[in-house]
């Protein structure tokens, strides 16, 4: 913890770098990814403060849209699309994902009921080899499922139909730093 505290102490000693941020934000991209500490969107994309709007959830899950029971994830998506006017949304899964790995293996999650119930939103259960520590196939299928679910949000539907919003599926390899994007033409994930 101490290195984090030390950095936080010196971080605010450069106010000239941050003064413009008080005027507001205008990110062009909503980046939906996992809460995993090894996935750092600003490092992956090179984004500076104010350039990337982030939604981080266990397993980069986009819950089903429902107007009866709004979620913080739905509110974040709606705010990014309707208020901030982002031009693109990236759903980024990653190798060695504990959430997707648990789903692929069919792990017993009764000891962590909140995790178990949250991961129920990931359905259908991602395919993949249970012995693959990267769970690449499962994560990639899972990312595409979340992207499909994202398309069911009314604000996303409107903006994509109008050609004002692009949707992207990414897969980040924790062990190499490689980022792959889904190519619909070939239905494969290829290096950017």
UniProtKB/TrEMBL annotation:
Cofactor dependence: Zn(2+)
BP GO terms, sorted: carbon utilization
SUPFAM superfamilies associated with the record: beta-carbonic anhydrase, cab
Gene Ontology molecular function: any one: carbonate dehydratase activity
Protein residues bound to Zn(2+): 34, 36, 94, 97
Gene3D superfamilies assigned to the protein according to its UniProt record, in alphabetical order: Carbonic anhydrase (3.40.1050.10)
EC number(s) given by UniProt: 4.2.1.1
Catalytic activity: hydrogencarbonate + H(+) = CO2 + H2O
Function text: Catalyzes the reversible hydration of carbon dioxide to form bicarbonate. Reversible hydration of carbon dioxide.
Family label: Belongs to the beta-class carbonic anhydrase family.
PANTHER family: CARBONIC ANHYDRASE (PTHR11002)
Protein name: Carbonic anhydrase
UniProt organism field: Streptomyces filipinensis
């Amino acid at each position: 913890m101490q290195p984090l505290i030390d950095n936080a102490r010196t971080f605010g000693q450069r106010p000239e770098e941050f003064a413009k941020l008080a005027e507001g934000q205008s990110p062009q991209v909503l980046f939906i990814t996992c809460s995993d500490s090894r996935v750092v969107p600003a490092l992956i994309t090179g984004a500076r403060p104010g350039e990337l709007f982030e939604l981080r959830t266990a397993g980069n899950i986009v819950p089903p849209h429902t107007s009866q029971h709004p979620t913080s994830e739905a509110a974040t998506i709606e705010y990014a699309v309707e208020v901030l006017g982002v031009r693109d949304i990236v759903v980024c899964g990653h190798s060695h994902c504990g959430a997707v790995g648990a789903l692929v293996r069919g792990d017993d999650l009764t000891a962590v009921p909140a995790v178990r119930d949250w991961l129920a939103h990931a359905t259908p259960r991602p395919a993949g080899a249970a012995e693959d520590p990267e769970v690449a196939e499962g994560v990639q299928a899972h990312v595409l499922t979340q992207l499909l679910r994202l398309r069911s949000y009314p604000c996303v539907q409107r903006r994509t139909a109008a050609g004002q919003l692009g949707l992207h599926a990414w897969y980040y390899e924790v062990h190499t730093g490689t980022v792959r994007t889904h190519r619909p033409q070939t239905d494969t994930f290829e290096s950017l």
